[in-house]
Recover the amino acids of this structure.
């Protein structure tokens, strides 16, 4: 393997990736937008997670968001500018799916550190991690249905793999928050702790893994994923097809307009 520090140790618009010994700390850095992510950020994050495979000194990745939230989902405000650049819904879906797949495929354990919102595609990228530690103020939210869309980022499959179909259906069809304690009870979070204890818990887990045998960690992760996420690729493909259709629908336009206008959407289809 090539020791490619430049690919994993970087600070760019939207996120930072910083080496800390054998730990790579990746942080989404848009707290003013509750760490909503645009197309460019999704692509760059996917590149960074994939580069871990070329850096044998990394044993674990800690993935989090700056400030009080993990990730509130796709940054809808960036849509018009992306469209002007020729970035299609197809390309955005590919970038989101590639990021989720890169987290799952990373050859070392990924720890998600969750505060506040993990919403929209943020649910998928959080639950794609191998260990998910959350503060007691955190929550999961699949709000897609509220704006005329369907879950993406593998979220429904990742929820169902850990917690079963009934909870996945509840989250996806009702579009309501799932608070951290309930997410932990359902098996979606590894642990839930008070906010002031979160960093210590995440650091302890990362330090323990950082001193483990990389190849054994890689093969263990592969075995766990094969046992639980065999349907992920099919789910990502189905989400892409469905979401591209919905992104062009009158209901999506109504949902976004209502959300921005802070009123209740009136769907017609």
């Amino acid at each position: 393997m090539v020791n490619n520090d430049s690919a994993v140790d970087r600070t760019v618009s939207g996120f930072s990736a910083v080496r800390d010994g054998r730990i790579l700390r990746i942080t989404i850095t848009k707290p003013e937008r509750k760490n909503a992510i645009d197309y460019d950020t999704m692509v760059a994050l996917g590149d960074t997670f994939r580069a871990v495979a070329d850096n044998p000194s990394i044993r674990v990745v800690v993935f989090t968001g700056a400030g009080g939230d993990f990730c509130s989902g796709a940054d809808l405000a960036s849509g018009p500018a992306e469209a002007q650049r020729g970035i299609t819904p197809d390309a955005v879906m590919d970038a989101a799916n590639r990021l989720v797949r890169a987290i799952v495929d990373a050859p070392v354990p990924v720890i998600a550190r969750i505060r506040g919102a993990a919403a929209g595609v943020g649910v998928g990228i959080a639950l794609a991690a191998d260990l998910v530690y959350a503060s007691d103020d955190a929550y999961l939210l699949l709000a897609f249905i509220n704006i005329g869309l369907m879950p993406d980022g593998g979220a429904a499959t990742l929820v169902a793999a850990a917690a079963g179909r009934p909870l996945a259906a509840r989250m996806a069809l009702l579009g309501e928050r799932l608070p951290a304690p309930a997410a932990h009870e359902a098996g979606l979070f590894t642990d839930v702790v008070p906010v002031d204890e979160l960093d210590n818990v995440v650091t302890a887990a990362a330090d323990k893994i950082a001193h483990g045998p990389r190849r054994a960690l890689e093969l263990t992760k592969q075995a766990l994923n094969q046992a639980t996420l065999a349907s992920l690729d099919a789910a990502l493909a189905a989400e892409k097809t469905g979401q591209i259709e919905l992104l062009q629908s009158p209901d999506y336009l109504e949902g976004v307009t209502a959300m921005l206008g802070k009123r209740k959407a009136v769907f017609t289809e």
Notes: The two ends are 52 Å apart (CA to CA). The chain has twelve helices and ten strands.
